[in-house]
Write a structure and sequence with these properties.
The structure is a homodimer of 256-residue chains.
Chain A (H helix, E strand, L loop, with lengths): L3 E4 L8 H14 L4 E5 L5 H5 L11 H5 L10 E2 L5 E4 L5 H9 L7 H6 L8 E5 L6 H9 L2 E7 L2 H5 L1 H14 L5 E10 L4 H14 L3 E7 L2 H5 L7 H4 L4 H14 L6
Parallel strand pairs in A: 1-5, 1-6, 2-4, 2-5, 6-7, 7-8
Antiparallel strand pairs in A: 3-4
Helix pairs in contact in A: 1-12
Bound molecules: adenosine-5'-triphosphate (ATP) (2 copies) and magnesium ion (MG) (2 copies).
One adenosine-5'-triphosphate sits at the interface of chains A and B.
Chain lengths: 256, 256
């Protein structure tokens, strides 16, 4: 598994933030030093890790746009090995402010460079769009993890995402690989989940990760307590599946 | 119910597109002439109504950015009373192209003006972000319908949305009202759904719509056949709830 991973899918509500938080926590539990980077103005990663975005004086916005030093903005979380570069509402304007900056696609990559030695893994959560913030994540990353719900609209958007990855490789980040496609909110009681899974397996064969994340209400409850699932309910199916995902990725060879 | 309604929530995956398609179809079934406007580059409304975005020569992009006449781009759907102004992938670039246009917030409002007399209702589906396309929808609309999942992350984003509505009223559209907040994907088996519903009812009291949309897999299956739920499975709970929603809104007095 590469050190810097972007968790990306422009379709909304497919489990990007839930995957970022809980994969990061599972890796931290396995004694890896992990940084979560929240690039979404909704700041769901920030609140899901128990940090109140309204109480922050500085966020990723101040580092990317106002050149504040990154080590003064990174905060601790309840897990010793897990740190966070938090987001706040200012990011809503960042998409416009970044447009006029020279090298606008490389800003995130540039700000992460000095702290790379401090972490084993850096997970970047993306907003639900193919905007300049998502692009910054794909340029800074060495590989991309694609969460996808087992539903039709999520399936439809996947070709757009792969087109975007091709463009990013061509213009900005030639070494960007695909870590894998992760099925989320899988509900074995419905035919739909099974059909979409089969479609994806036929089409993307070796890019599909073995681990499948089931629909599990404990995963949706945990964020209201500001805790990753392993601190909220370690016995739940949700916690088990993200621990399995961390194990699978730690044993993972690089894919194309 | 006002004629032009934006269906908006920057949180991803809360049921914006599903609500736009199925409310529009239920209104069309009640003999209203309805136009659906798809402003999302994912073009889920377009495919959910059975139109292949790749086969389109023109879309809303060509009308908003290249000044093509709107009546040459609007297409028919399987329901006689329901038309569609389709989206396509070009919209991904539109957010940047619109930034430099004078009066960029009013472009959608301007292109809809000549066709207002042809429709009883115009429903505008928004992308999952507070970008210039969502803003265009909020400026063109007379009221806004806010779908919200009964989950924590969706609850968190609602204050940002109301802040945005305040700014839109102040700078661009003073008469923008809130048609209501619609609970979607409600799962009565989980405590979470009930808790979030109660939080919302305490906080937003009279803005909450009576109709609640249950989680119903038939709603997630219908888009793969390009059909609204009333054509895919009229007997399902999903179809029943959207028909109830249409009834409630048709009898609806304007709210603040
Ligand atoms: N496996 C799961 N089982 C049950 N609920 C889940 C699961 N994964 C995520 N959720 C819930 O589904 C909703 C959407 O997930 P999440 O917010 O992580 O998606 P996202 O892709 O980050 O959304 P956005 O596009 O808005 O950033 C959240 O309320 C979350 O708590
Ligand atoms: N009531 C429901 N029951 C079951 N599934 C639903 C329901 N409403 C929507 N869905 C499914 O949930 C997913 C998200 O819904 P939808 O795409 O309509 O949300 P959205 O807010 O438009 O997403 P985006 O933010 O990406 O535009 C879709 O796969 C849809 O089919
Ligand atoms: Mg998210
Ligand atoms: Mg949508």
């Amino acid at each position: 598994m590469e050190k810097i991973v972007a968790i990306t899918n422009q379709k909304g509500g497919v489990g990007k933030t839930t995957t970022t938080i809980n994969l990061a926590a599972a890796l931290a539990m396995a004694d890896m030093r992990v940084l979560v980077v929240d690039t979404d103005a909704q700041a769901n990663c920030t609140s899901g890790l128990g940090v109140d975005r309204r109480s922050l004086r500085k966020s990723i916005y101040h580092v990317m746009i106002l050149n504040e030093p990154i080590d003064q903005v990174i905060v601790r979380t309840e897990l010793d090995n897990l740190r966070l570069l938090p987001a706040d509402k200012n990011l809503t304007g960042a998409a416009v402010e970044l447009i006029d900056l020279p090298g606008r696609e490389y800003v995130l990559k540039r700000i992460l460079t000095p702290i790379l030695p401090d972490y084993d893994y850096i997970l970047i959560d993306s907003p639900p769009s193919l905007n300049i913030l998502t692009l910054n994540g794909l340029v800074a990353a060495q590989s991309v993890l694609i969460p996808i719900q087992c539903e039709y609209f999520a399936l439809e958007g996947i070709t757009d995402l792969f087109d975007t990855l091709k463009r990013v490789r061509h213009s900005f980040n030639p070494d960007l690989s695909v870590l894998g496609i992760l099925l989320t909110m899988y509900d074995e009681r419905t035919n739909l989940s099974g059909q979409v899974r089969d479609d994806l397996r036929n089409y993307f064969a070796d890019l599909m990760l073995e681990t499948v994340i089931p629909r599990n209400v404990r995963l949706a409850e945990a964020p209201s307590y500001g805790k990753p699932i392993i601190l909220y309910d370690i016995r739940s199916k949700g916690a088990e599946s993200y621990i399995n995902l961390a194990k699978e990725l730690l044993n993972h060879a690089k894919k194309g």
